[in-house]
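Dear Dr. H.,

I hope your travels went smoothly. While you were away I took the liberty of generating a structure for the chain from your last submission, since the lab meeting agenda had it listed for discussion. I wanted you to have the full record in hand beforehand rather than looking at slides cold. The sequence, exactly as received, is reproduced here:
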Amino acid sequence: LYQELGKQSPNEQQGFFNAHMTGDEVSKQGYHDQYFSTTLTTLRKHVNYLVNELEELSENTWRKDVERHPRLPLLMRHNEFVRETFELVQRHLDSMGS
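The corresponding predicted structure, in token form, is as follows:
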């Protein structure tokens, strides 16, 4: 939210920063409530980007030689786990926006 406020309104960004630094949870929650749709949109874009990157990485990885890259299967399983996790986040974010 802080970064997005900087793009939209430096004054709002400063207010959010001040609320955070002084522990003003009521004001912070007000910013979160006011900019919920902006935060949700930004998070969706970020998560979608990561899922797409992991899918492309997975597609490119299958073309590699496992003999030359013996840790490749481990990396592929890890990337699959991360992609599945981000897909769960995608579904959760989608449910928040509907």
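Two observations you may find useful: The CA atoms of residues 80 and 88 lie 12 Å apart. The chain has five helices and no strands.

With kind regards,
E. W.
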